[in-house]
Design goal:
The complex is a heterodimer of chains A (291) and B (317).
Chain A (H helix, E strand, L loop, with lengths): L1 H13 L1 H32 L16 H12 L3 H9 L4 H6 L1 H5 L6 H35 L4 E4 L4 E4 L5 H25 L7 H19 L3 H6 L4 H4 L25 H28 L5
Antiparallel strand pairs in A: 1-2
Helix pairs in contact in A: 1-7, 2-4, 2-7, 3-7, 4-8, 4-9, 7-8, 7-12, 8-9, 8-12
Chain B lengths: L8 E12 L2 E12 L3 E6 L5 H8 L7 E6 L2 E2 L4 H5 L2 E5 L10 H11 L6 H10 L15 H13 L5 E5 L7 H17 L3 E5 L3 H7 L2 E6 L2 E7 H4 L4 E8 L2 H9 L7 E5 L2 E7 L3 H10 L4 E7 L2 H11 L4 E2 L3
The chains are: A mainly alpha (291), B alpha/beta (317).
């Protein structure tokens, strides 16, 4: 199993396509950072327009923590496509190349082959998120410095103390990793139904888009299924930035306002992963290889 | 490592059937391959050859029937059995973005071998790719890919080698190379080889035993010597008027021996001792005979059994 995983990782990281995702992330984050570095003050004024008459702000709103939050909000919508490029290609790509049949004539169990492939796509997903963290958080901290994190919600403002921010990002990235692994599991599952990569990649994105629309539309019919859609729970990473307040309305350092919401979302995502991967293993063990 | 239960009978297939919805691709097929055989597996397109081979390699699950290899049930000892099998299935598709060396190393590891550099280079040398070892496969010709596929099939030194259409897409030199390689594997390295091919003359030159199937069913199985015995002859007859000659044959006792015409010539399957009487009958009926030629090639035999399908059975020693 370990050797097979090494082989799968070797194949993933020998393909030029793998590095396109890292290059795309670098370019996107670079563009956002450049824009905010050059015209950040105007952006901050725009964001603060509704609050300008209510209170004044000392310190740097446009600090590394704030930039990272902006980047995460923008990027986590697009990252699923980059993950689908690899995960949805894991089986269908092998079937398309004709290597699947050679692979399965080797003395390896089909379950071990599927699990090695899935774990390889999980490792790729995690490395992509680590790269986002390096570029989006650490590089932004380096360029823009650090200060309190100032977040504008729909009807209120959240100010997270500088000393209380970093662990929240660690939690948010861990949760985002779980959400993206769910996407990888979906792409991986769909890759069993095609003998070319395009179909499963498009299907993965289509499922995510449709489910996201259902998750965001406030219609009673859809509200019934929302709690069961994985897309509803993919944005729960934001909960790490809401904290409890004491009677004096002061932030309680190290607290999360709705930790049960995070646990519930993580559970739903984990169940989806188990269902997608379990189904993939079950199907693959029975599949006739005709490619 | 698998200890062979049966050294003599390497493969034993019993009543093997595979159905895809309403299509029966393989139907109650039974055959056996013995140690040291070069076993030619023949059939027309869609006869069920590839489906059978894929079942031997566990790529397809049989609907019913049993397969035992090296004396062990394939279902129960899949991993151990596959460690002793090397296979090339139709096109030798490998990872095009990797080099020949990397492909070989990767598949050697998957076969349970810890390959040394020398071992890999020796293997590439054997299939004539040592000088291109570190070039990516996307720069290779079809013949080179085929040779690499065979190198991958042999890298773990298997006892049984299964080659499904190994000469597909090869030029005459490539076909000859594959033929010679199979002979070396069989005669010098004492491997058992199952080979399916459309190129009957190639099979004829290398196979020690032959199985012909059609529509998933066995038509005939036996050694080359048994199949081409002197009693079974196909006559290729050139006459002045085919219509008259065919009418004459159809009204004779040899009506059922008439085979489909080939290259405008009449083909008839006959026992050797019937040929003089058959000749006299044609001449007596006023048919002008230009030539009457006995054919003994595998192609003739194949066309005879796949057209008539009257010889269902097994030749036994």
């Amino acid at each position: 199993m370990w050797e097979h995983l090494q082989i799968e990782l070797y194949k993933v990281f020998k393909r030029p396509r793998t590095y396109l995702s890292f290059a795309a992330i670098t370019a996107l984050i670079g563009v956002i950072q450049l824009g905010l570095l050059v015209d950040g003050k105007e952006y901050a004024d725009f964001v603060m327009a509704d609050f300008a008459n209510s209170f004044s702000v000392d310190g740097k709103i446009l600090n590394g923590y704030f930039i990272c939050y902006v980047i995460l909000q923008l990027l986590l919508v697009h990252v699923p496509l980059l993950i689908a490029l690899i995960a949805a290609d894991m089986i269908s790509g092998e079937a398309n190349m004709g290597t699947l049949r050679i692979l399965l004539t080797k003395p390896q169990s089909r379950t071990a082959i599927v699990m090695a492939k899935f774990i390889a796509s999980v490792i790729y997903t995690l490395l992509l998120l680590i790269w986002i963290a390096i570029m989006g958080l650490f590089l932004s901290m380096l360029i823009f410095g650090t200060d309190d994190l100032f977040l504008m919600k729909s009807s209120y403002v959240v100010i997270v103390k500088e000393s209380d921010v970093f662990w929240r990002y660690a939690g948010a990235f861990c949760f985002a990793a779980l959400a993206m692994v769910t996407v990888a599991a979906l792409g991986f599952f769909l890759s069993f139904f095609a003998e070319n990569s395009i179909g499963p990649i498009v299907a993965t994105m289509s499922v995510i888009i449709v489910c996201t629309i259902l998750s965001t539309m406030n219609i009673p019919l859809f509200n019934l299924i929302k709690p069961y859609l994985f897309t509803t729970h993919m944005i729960t990473w934001k909960e790490f930035f809401d904290f409890k307040v004491n009677d004096a309305n002061e932030a309680i350092i190290g607290s999360i306002q709705y930790p049960d919401k995070i646990i519930r979302s993580a559970t739903v995502l984990a169940v989806h992963i188990v269902l997608f991967v379990g189904s993939a293993v079950w199907l693959f063990r029975k599949k006739d290889i005709l490619s | 490592m698998l200890l062979y239960k049966s050294m003599q009978q390497i493969v034993k297939v019993s009543q093997l059937t595979k159905q895809f919805n309403s299509l029966t691709a393989v139907n109650q097929l039974s055959f056996s391959v013995e140690s040291g055989d070069v076993y030619g597996f023949l059939g027309q397109n869609g006869a069920g050859k590839s489906t059978t081979i894929r079942m031997l390699l566990t790529l397809i699950t049989p609907t019913s029937g049993d397969i035992s290899i090296f004396g062990y049930d394939l279902n129960k000892h899949r991993k151990e059995i596959l460690q002793q099998i090397g296979a090339v299935i139709e096109k030798p598709d490998v990872y095009k973005y990797l080099s020949a060396y990397e492909n070989l190393k990767l598949f050697a590891k998957l076969s349970g071998v810890k390959p040394s550099n020398k071992m890999l280079m020796d293997q590439l040398e054997m299939v004539g790719l040592a000088s291109r070892a570190h070039d990516t496969v996307k720069t290779f010709s079809q013949g080179m890919k085929q040779r690499l596929g065979i190198g991958i099939a042999l890298v773990h030194n298997p006892q049984l080698i299964i080659l499904d259409e190994p000469t597909n897409g090869l030029d005459p030199q490539g076909i000859a190379d594959i033929r010679n390689l199979i002979l070396i594997l069989s005669r010098e390295m004492k491997k058992t080889v199952i080979v399916s091919s459309h190129l009957l003359n190639e099979i004829e030159q290398i196979a020690t035993r032959i199985l012909i199937i059609d529509k998933g069913q066995k038509l005939v199985e036996g050694s080359s010597a048994e199949l081409f015995n002197d009693q079974q002859t196909i006559l290729q007859i050139s006459v002045a008027n085919n219509g008259t000659a065919i009418q004459t044959i159809q009204s004779s006792i040899w009506a059922n021996n008439l085979l489909p015409e080939r290259d405008g010539q009449i083909m008839v399957g006959l026992n050797k001792e019937d040929i003089p009487n058959f000749n006299r009958m044609l001449a007596a009926s006023g048919v002008d005979i230009y030539s009457l030629q006995a054919r003994h090639s595998l192609e003739d035999y194949f066309l005879q059994v796949t057209a008539g399908k009257q010889h269902v059975g097994t030749f036994t020693n």
